[in-house]
Amino acid sequence: MRSKFTALKFSLVLVFILMSTILVAQTPGAPPPPKDISEIKFMPASIDKVNQLVRYCRNPRMIYSSDLKNLLEEALQYTRDTKRDELTVSLLSVTAIVELGLGNQENAVKYIKEAESYLGQLPERAVVNLLSDLTRVYTRIGDVEKSTLYNDKLEAFTKDKPQFIIPRVLNLRNRVNLDLKTGNNEKVKSNYELALKLAKESNNPALLKDTRFSYANVLINMHKDDEAFTILKDLIPDLENAMTDRTGSFFEILSRNYERNGDYKNAFIYAEKTFNLPNATTQQKGNSISKMINLSFYLKNYSNFESYYADHKKHGMDQNSLHSRKLYQLAEGRYFDAKENHKLAKTNYTKAFKLKMNKQFSPDIDVEILTGLASLYAREGKNDSASLYFKKAENLIKQYSMPPATRFIYANALKNFTQYNTVGQDTLIKNLKQEMHLKDTLYHMSLSKISNELATKYSVNEKEKELELAKKQKQVQELELKQQKQRNLLIIIGATIAVLLLGGVAYILSQRKKQALLLHNATLSDLKKQHRIDIMNTLTDAQEEEKKRIAGRLHDEVGAMLSIAKLNINTLQDNVFVSGSGAENKLAVTKNLMNDISETVRNISHALMPIALEKYGFKAAILDLLTNIKAANSLRVEHVIEGLDDTKNWPQNFTLSAYRIIQEILNNAIKHAQATHLFVQIIELDNAITIYIEDNGRGITDENTETEGVGMKLLQTNIAYLSGKLEIKGEPNAGTFALIELPIPNAIKP
């Protein structure tokens, strides 16, 4: 036995060593993934949990939810209770950001104002973080005055402190975004030049790349595409090596420029690439899927519309960006427009057009919305409404510089409308086609060339990366080939030995398991037989006791009455004709005795086999028993009986045993409980009957805790014999209840 166990241990250790060798040789180590909200949720309250929660909320791929709000509230309570002011401020800031993401601006203001109150109580690093958060939140809220105030404070605080050069660079970039939103473009270039200078001085290549990419994006928004693409060409190889992966932003730029020039097919391709990026932010996914719906509408390709719409509803929008909200609502309108649901399409178009947010505006999307409304009304034959919305779109085109594609959308829709309807057009509309063929076509070709050049360069760069990576992998494989062959040989030899050892041990264990199973089954069979014998012995003993009781009753009651009757008859025989002998009285007494004897014998007979049970069935017998109890005792009896209408196919011994069980419990309640009220409930289920009997008697007391009397023993044995369950509970002077469940055996087929 000891040698077998030693062999098992040795084989397991050997297999573990071999598997460890294989894993070390073939799989590189990887850092553990960052904690997700589902992991953070089950962490105990601690500083680590708070830090993990703050990191999650600062992640661009954070998903806003009510669960996240609840976790933040719990964390705030913890940091306040433990007086961790620095953590409390961080939580207040990210909670404000989350509330903004959920569209709850009032709550966001409440939390960020509370965070403001801590400004004079924090160390330098925490002050920098808080000023940055205050600038960010107030910018998103649209409070230009406060966002400018805290941006200036952060610039002044970090200006002469080299340790805060990175926050200063990020703050300068935020200032540019703030200036762009307010239309103040004068200092954009100087601020970004300063940010680029500081980024170089920081000796942080990732920060420099990220800042250059951010500047290129700003230049595109300012319609300085040539300057922007000059920067982007140099950055393409390092998009994934910046502070944050800018691949998604680059794809967004390509998609936006293709869309502006009417190349909807390529615009869709890059929107889809953005959406499918594993590291795309929640905002990027929401904007990309909305754009995919709009582009599919222009391409008249509705094959995946349902799945796009489901993703569109799932990812939502950036509640604090007018462009994102209008794009989302426009996609809703396009979806229902394609479905020919004009009512919902018009509702969503109108809702999109009416959206307003502080000083933000998106006239190009408004032109698309108004053109969509005009086209819908034109299809319905409502020319006045169609003309109204075309006129509104025309006014926006006059007022703002529109991308070529936007004007194409308007021109084509108007062209389709004017083919069948006479509409007044001013000089702008009359010369629109000519302008597009001259100016816009050149612009289109220029931007298309730039976009194609960027896309090609990115594709070539990706291919070069793949080839270089493949070359390096091949070199590594060649270097490791000899070592791998040796390792493989060692692994094969070791694995063969391990398999042989494990096979031998497994065979021994299998044989022992079989023997143990056989022994277990034999023991179980013996226990079942012994249990059946014990039940039969108990039943036999109980039956013998019952026979003795019946015999005693016959002897004491019936025998005594018969002796008196015999004595009276003998006396009558001697003095029947003698006057004054009292023969008539003796005859009457004898008659009464004979009636009592008959009644006693009848009761004993009924106790042995109730007539109602034999003649009318189980349910009638129970009702007859309850009726007799009501009549014979000063008890109020309530009963509920469900089912039991067809018990003729029940086995006779089951029916009789069930009746005896109910009879025994009722007898105990009448004789011992001193009850005045009984409640009986019997319910037939699919495969069992449940019996519930409750009385209001004296309950279970110290005097009647002995449950091993003849009646109770017979009751317990009968229930066990029927594989039933019994539960009896009672408190002194609070009554007693009994609950019994009896499985119904297979019915006897007639």
TrEMBL record:
GO terms for cellular component: membrane. Keywords: ATP-binding, Coiled coil, Kinase, Membrane, Nucleotide-binding, Phosphoprotein, Signal, Transferase, Transmembrane, Transmembrane helix, Two-component regulatory system. Its EC number is 2.7.13.3. The chain crosses the membrane at residues 489-509. Residues 660-746 form the Histidine kinase domain. It catalyses: ATP + protein L-histidine = ADP + protein N-phospho-L-histidine. SMART domains: HATPase_c. This is histidine kinase. It comes from Pedobacter planticolens. The lineage of its organism: Bacteria, Pseudomonadati, Bacteroidota, Sphingobacteriia, Sphingobacteriales.
